[in-house]
Amino acid sequence: MGNKRWPAIIATPAMRSSYDTVIIGGGGHGLATAHYLAKNHGITDVAVLEGSWIGGGNTARNTTIVRSDYLLNASFGLKNFALKLWGELSQELNFNLMYEPRGYVDLAHSDGELEHFTIRANAMRLGGAGVEILTGQALQDCVPELDLNSAARFPVAGALFQPAGGVIRHDAVAWGFARKASQAGIHIFQKTPVTKINITKDKVSSVDTPQGRINCRQVFISVAGASNQVASLAGLDLPIHSINVQAFVTEPVKPALKTVVNYNAGLSYISQTAKGEFVLGGASDGYNSFARRGSFARIEDVLARAVQMFPFLSRLRLMRHWSGTADISMDGNAIIGQTPIDGLSINCGWGYAGFKATPAVGHQMAELLANNTTPDLIKPFTYDRFANGAEIDDAGAGPYPWHH
């Protein structure tokens, strides 16, 4: 009779007319925040409202890579904290998240780029991360399948290698956090979109849903690519734009690649799943869209670079492909924390980097919501940093919009 006897993984409570905290968005970040509110602060008077299904947005539409190889302290600090949390979460949630620290290999294509990677590696070491610079035979030994000789157009000068980087099962992350939060008494509602965020005397007072109005003290918006639409329900204009990012999967074959490899010349990253499929992704499509479907031109660009790294991939067939909506800010970094509206907090602008930061964002946002103070790790990501000229310029682009 199929799987009809499987028990429900989360409770299906009746919706109350009032909660202390409403979290809009049942993806990884929103559910992680709910979990840490209960675990670290004993706060369970919380409703998580998801417009579709748990983990059905960008949490399910990524390439599962986790890493912390960033130069600037703000970006590195938050991602490295997340990387430490990933290693503990399966036990903490009693849910196998399938974290695999295979190692993350970031290829440099010139001596100058390798020098930049060395600076980044030294900064990471000062922050407590394990990292190596690999060249020549050491790189070949790390990634035996990598063709170092045929990359005539974009030669490989070396690589930054982070052993703790790797992959983690994305849907397991969402459902692991959801189950633990539900067990703690937090109410999670699927297929419950928010249609309005009501403001009374410049303060959040309630949210409207198709099931009725919910009165609340505070609202936390964490909806990734839909951030602009949801924030507009409260009259808030966000300095972000939304754009498609694609990924694709090949047919499964025997194990051939143990690490995650990133090819920086034009951007193409690749890993192999436990089932044998190769997962590939690359740069965004370059035009604003909410369509969740990408262009064949981007597929061709990514595959051309992937085949240059690993020529044997040319013999494989693509099995499926998908697209997610990345919300990207002016400096390419996230916007996290309180907004000018009292009681309204936001988590958006993550672009490519949201999934890997999931537990750290949840941990830090739970502290903010519980204590009404901004923790140190997310202080650099405030909503008002653009007005104050405090951009987090990981890309080195200066005072210009983020381009892809």
Q: Quickly name the level 1 CATH class of the largest domain.
A: Alpha Beta
Q: Work out the helicity level.
A: 25-40%
In DSSP terms (H or I, runs of 4 or more residues), the helix count works out at: 8
Q: For this entry, what is the oligomeric state of its chains?
A: single chain
Silhouette: globular
**How big a fraction of the residues is strand?**
15-25%
Count of folded domains: 2
CATH topology of the largest domain: FAD/NAD(P)-binding domain
Describe the largest sheet: 8 strands, mixed
For the secondary structure, the number of strands is: 18
Question: What is the radius of gyration computed over CA atoms, rounded to a whole number of angstroms?
Answer: 21 Å
Second rung of CATH, namely the architecture of the largest domain = 3-Layer(bba) Sandwich
Q: Would you kindly provide a written description of the structure presented here, covering whatever features stand out?
A:
By secondary structure, the protein is of the alpha/beta class. The protein folds into two domains: 18-62 and 170-239 and 331-385, FAD/NAD(P)-binding domain (3-Layer(bba) Sandwich), CATH 3.50.50.60; 102-163 and 241-329, D-Amino Acid Oxidase, Chain A, domain 2, CATH 3.30.9.10. Helices cover 26% and strands 25% of the residues. The protein contains eight helices and 18 strands. The strands form three sheets. Strands 1, 2, 8, 9, 10, 11, 17 and 18 form an eight-stranded mixed sheet that branches. It has an eight-stranded mixed sheet with strand order 5-6-4-13-14-15-12-16. It has a two-stranded antiparallel sheet with strand order 3-7. Helix 1 (28-41) crosses helix 8 (358-371). The longest helix is centred in the first third of the chain and has 21 residues, at 73-93. The relative contact order is 0.19.
